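G., the chain you wanted modeled:
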Amino acid sequence: MVLAGFSPAIIMGALGWKSAVSVAMLAGLASFMACTMGKGWKSGLIIALPFSVFTALTVWAAPYALAAAIVLAIAAFLRGYGAKVGLHNAFLTTVIALGFLVADPPKFTGSVPSPIVAGLVTLATALWVTLVVFVAQRWVHPPKLAPIETVRVLWFSSVLALLVGIATWCVVHFDLGHGGGWIILTILVVFQPYLDTSFSKAVERALGTVAGFVIAIVVGLLVTSGPLLYLIGTILMIASIVFMLGGKPYWLFAAFLTPAIVLYESAGSTVTKVAIERLEATVAGVVATLIVLGILYPLAKYGQRKSGAPTL
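Predicted structure as tokens:
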């Protein structure tokens, strides 16, 4: 099912349409996660059109720091607001995909503007993945969704939008490139509706990234063939998704996802160089989020004492 979901990217790569491959890969992964972590194929239909519109807006805004920050902030807020019906985890990868697109926007040749092409590729891929999940729905067992109270959802969405907006502005303004996408990814993954969960997620993210860094270095020392690196990366990607869907600890998911992406990106560079760049970006994202959490935690504790709320 995973391979079927990525088939648009595989076909585009085989046809030599390299600019569309990254868009299709990101759209396929985001749509697959939305379906498997949300309401099955129905979640795919929910995100298909909005996701494609945001993809087009992101590619259009990518050269402009303020515009890009606003687009990503709105997307992050909507993702966070999905927590009201328990869909914030299902929508997570959609904003992550936008983060990588704004950090390294695709460029298409031809008379049709790149934002429109990127949006159409995303829409076609999202609908394809939704169809795949619909056909295979007997094997898809979405998790039980846990809605979160409105006050906490608004707080979470607002702070997340601010964090992602600032990070996006920095990524574009300082031209951080693809590594900037990892900073945005880390913030989105680490910052959770409950602060206690955010701290534990930060630790797991750091642990998983370091473990993945070691795996990538070992593979890079043993393998130099580009096609073989892609094959190993695909195996690691599928393993990470299996761990996630199986409810395994997050650090284990990150430990396999990190080397998978590093190996995918190592075709024009060395595995060691790419791994170090991704490690630095992840650490920057974790540190930035922890600083914000350190500021918010005393405020949340005070509010907890005043309101008698049971959790942070």
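Residues 271-307 form the longest helix (37 residues).

Shout if anything looks off.
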